[in-house]
Automatic annotation (TrEMBL):
<dbReference type="InterPro" id="IPR019546">
    <property type="entry name" value="TAT_signal_bac_arc"/>
</dbReference>
<feature type="binding site">
    <location>
        <position position="294"/>
    </location>
    <ligand>
        <name>[3Fe-4S] cluster</name>
    </ligand>
</feature>
<feature type="binding site">
    <location>
        <position position="158"/>
    </location>
    <ligand>
        <name>[4Fe-4S] cluster 1</name>
    </ligand>
</feature>
<dbReference type="GO" id="GO:0009055">
    <property type="term" value="F:electron transfer activity"/>
</dbReference>
<dbReference type="InterPro" id="IPR006311">
    <property type="entry name" value="TAT_signal"/>
</dbReference>
<feature type="binding site">
    <location>
        <position position="229"/>
    </location>
    <ligand>
        <name>[4Fe-4S] cluster 2</name>
    </ligand>
</feature>
<feature type="binding site">
    <location>
        <position position="232"/>
    </location>
    <ligand>
        <name>[4Fe-4S] cluster 2</name>
    </ligand>
</feature>
<comment type="subunit">
    <text>Heterodimer of a large and a small subunit.</text>
</comment>
<dbReference type="Pfam" id="PF01058">
    <property type="entry name" value="Oxidored_q6"/>
</dbReference>
<feature type="binding site">
    <location>
        <position position="63"/>
    </location>
    <ligand>
        <name>[4Fe-4S] cluster 1</name>
    </ligand>
</feature>
<keyword id="KW-0479">Metal-binding</keyword>
<dbReference type="GO" id="GO:0009375">
    <property type="term" value="C:ferredoxin hydrogenase complex"/>
</dbReference>
<dbReference type="GO" id="GO:0051538">
    <property type="term" value="F:3 iron, 4 sulfur cluster binding"/>
</dbReference>
<feature type="binding site">
    <location>
        <position position="257"/>
    </location>
    <ligand>
        <name>[4Fe-4S] cluster 2</name>
    </ligand>
</feature>
<dbReference type="GO" id="GO:0016020">
    <property type="term" value="C:membrane"/>
</dbReference>
<keyword id="KW-0732">Signal</keyword>
<dbReference type="GO" id="GO:0033748">
    <property type="term" value="F:hydrogenase (acceptor) activity"/>
</dbReference>
Length: 362
């Protein structure tokens, strides 16, 4: 068992702890009445009541790094350092035969009770010989550990759907966890997965003793139920047919849509526009980069910077309408209150950013 808290004691106020529990309740779409139960669930994690086995396969360990970079470092450290984390190759002090023995003992001792977290795709070609750990194939390790796990959670797009290791031509035939072991697997995709998605999902499992509501791709609905395009701060540019055609370009009177540069927001489902990344600082589109659709099964979709079919058609129609000096019927149908609200939200967001940049310069 890993208990770094004995060596690195961390303190957090009760007020901050309850505030974070309230944040988790909001993330999961629960009322304030659930805050005490959520606090108890997180404390249960901290008291070592919920064993976790975390395996790594074909990946970059970015999801572990993301989890450690939580917006609430005090609570993240509380959960990470005192969680009953029985096996984690990156965080545990043990190595070699000692580490593998710890894994075997944990699976026996906590049979039917532990949460299995898998980070990384599973190579299956030639029975998985292209990813070995301690002399065993990663494929066999996941299959064995999943057999007696209470819940199986795939963290990151690699573990969820194959991700980058499974990109064409996929020489080692990498697959996501569910495609290898079958059954119910909670997928928390993302490249990397947002720390809130990981913590919120685990707390939901502990709180209700069951997996949260999942979409057709096995993703928790509280985090992956909304289309990014619906809440995009550049939505106003899309509605008006104003597109950024090259990186670094700024349109004179509006923040242009990134659709022409391959933005996959219209076909991607995640709460990135509200969640934000790097301690609530920003997210891809607001940072003038197109959404790569990293939480979708199709990621990575190449080429990255060409418009998706739906947007390409709209761009063509918008340009034709502008040449004719009129607004297309298609674009007009997307107007109204939603377009106005989106454009207004985008204008307010970017106006604030511009003001902060100006203050920083002065």
């Amino acid at each position: 068992m890993i208990d770094l808290a004995r060596a690195l004691r961390k303190d957090i106020s009760r007020r901050s702890f309850i505030k974070y529990s309230a944040t988790l309740a909001a993330m999961l779409g629960l009322s304030d009445a659930f805050v005490p139960k959520i606090a108890a669930a997180v404390e249960g994690m901290a008291n070592g009541k919920q064993p976790v086995i975390w395996l790594h396969g074909a990946e970059c360990t970015g999801c572990t790094v993301s989890f450690a970079n939580s917006h609430h470092p005090g609570v993240a450290e509380l959960v990470l350092d005192t969680l009953s984390l029985q096996y984690h190759e990156t965080l545990m002090a043990a190595s070699g035969h000692v580490a593998e023995k710890a894994l075997e003992e944990a699976m026996t001792r906590f049979k039917g009770k532990y949460i299995l977290v898998v980070e990384g795709a599973i190579p299956v070609k030639d029975d998985g010989i292209y990813c070995r750990i301690g002399g065993k194939t990663f494929k066999s390790m996941v299959e064995e550990a999943a057999t007696n796990a209470a819940y199986v959670v795939a963290v990151g797009t690699c573990a969820s759907f194959g991700g980058i290791p499974a990109a064409d031509p996929n020489p080692t035939q990498c697959k996501g966890v569910a495609d290898v072991i079958g059954g119910t697997v909670v997928n928390i995709p993302g490249c990397p997965a947002h720390p809130d998605w990981i913590v919120g999902t685990i707390v939901s499992i502990l709180l209700f003793n069951k997996v949260p509501e999942l979409d057709k791709h096995g993703r928790p609905m509280p985090f992956f139920g909304k289309q990014i395009h619906e809440n995009c701060p550049r939505r106003g540019g899309y509605e008006q047919g104003r597109f950024v055609k090259k990186f670094g370009e700024e349109l004179p009177d509006i923040e242009g849509c990134m659709g022409a540069k391959g933005c996959r927001g219209p076909i991607t489902y995640a709460d990135c526009p509200h969640r934000l990344w790097n301690a609530g600082t920003n997210f891809c589109i607001a940072a003038s980069a197109p959404c790569a659709g990293c939480v979708e099964p199709s990621f990575p979709k190449l080429p990255l910077y060409e418009p998706i079919e739906e947007v390409a058609k709209f761009i063509e129609e918008s340009e034709a309408s502008q040449d004719e000096g009129s607004i297309s019927t298609f674009a007009a149908s997307l107007g109204g209150a939603v377009a106005g609200a989106a454009a207004g939200a985008g204008a307010v967001y970017f106006a604030g950013e511009k003001a902060r940049e100006k203050e920083g310069v002065e």
